[in-house]
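Researcher: Next entry: Cytochrome c oxidase cbb3 type accessory protein FixG (Shewanella pealeana).
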Amino acid sequence: MQKKNVNNTIDNPAREQRIPVTVLSSKPQSSKIHIRQQKGDFQKIRTGMNSLLVALFFLLPFISYEERQAILFDLNQQQFFFFGTTLWPQDFTILAWVFITAAFLLFFITVFWGRVWCGYLCPQTAWTFIYVWVETRIEGNRNKRFALDKAPWSGDKLKKRLLKHYVWGAVALLTGCGFIAYFVPARELYIDIFSFGASFWVTTWVWFFAICTYLNAGWMREQMCLHCCPYARFQSVMFDSNTKTVTYDAARGENRGPRKRNQALNSANLLAANLEASSTVNAILGDCVDCNLCVEVCPTGIDIRNGLQYECIDCGACVDACNQTMDKFGYQRNLIGYTSENALSGKAEPFYESYKFIGYGIAALLMLTVIVADIYSRSNIELNVIRDRQSLYRETNDATIENSYTLKIRNKTQQTRFYRVYVSGNSGYRLVGQANLKIEPGEQLDYPVTVIATPELLAGARNEITFTIAEQHNYAQASQESSFFAPI
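Model: Predicted structure:
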């Protein structure tokens, strides 16, 4: 039978009769956190999103596009391949804008849902839960892991610990390979690493990231979130009274206390039976049965009932655990749930009236505009004009003036392109030599050219000249100005 919730009634007389009680943890406190596995709606979402994140992390480097790894940071060639687009070092401002935009979008989401990034998408959280899953399968549930920690060393304990760290190490090594696969062709990397055929530096970087993964997810875990992650420190400036975070409804839950499932004591039951019965109990109990599950399932080991804390990563594990308990006792759900301070006090305001909502939204839109403008203005041709430094000019036998240049032309696409060279700035300029060029994908061509001009058509000793490289059958082109010198 569903229990009627009367604890939120303003004029509830039983609330005034509540006497504070001492709340004790049902489990011994330990410096090491062993997470109790928890099932529930939010854990299904978290597990699904973490699984998708890990799968994409490992599988993306194996996607091919036009006979090339689709996503690859090629450090040797100083190119970033993203499917059909190639970014060069001078194009990396686009990546900078992308990261800045992602930061503003993260802030924008934080205004509404707190640290949901940490709870559902952060790689630290995903790999920590992978390591906890391995630990649980080998050493047992939370209580068994505590018992194993306290047990003296034996053959069984040594076997479990060695197996656990072996699997942890294998996951870490795969993670190191997965990360470096974005910089070295993936299909070659895994074969070279496991056959000990990789180069010294490739092997060094793989093992460096493997060791980092092993330490972060296996040993440091919540310490990364509590002490190393800067987001945990400055997130509070993005919160406001309408931010939905994992919150304990103290008005409904206190005073907390254990009870039998079929004899749940609360203010409504006591009033219905006999108000005088309240003198025979230490306090009128709220909905919290003090099962302590919310603490045991928390990855950072906090007690959410103590109020909002920066250590909370909004993973929803305590929400699922509390809802499970509320269902068993027939109480209303969401004693712990995603809600805001204003919602608890009954004065929620429209989110669009928040200055933070407007500010972060405008900033994100501006950065998206910058990205679009930068991509639109980006050219697939790069041209640099270098004058001949040996001489300013030369006079030819047919009374013309010639200047020599070197055109550095880079084809920034992944296909072979055909270009034509043009000169402009004076009707007397003529290009000597072949004007049509063929450049391979990613190739930089150093092409020497000579320009001649009739002295009578020149304005002075120094004249402007513009070189243009245009792709045939396409509007893509690049231009650069230089100088054409002649006798005074």
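Model: Note for the record: Residues 13-27+239-347 form one domain.
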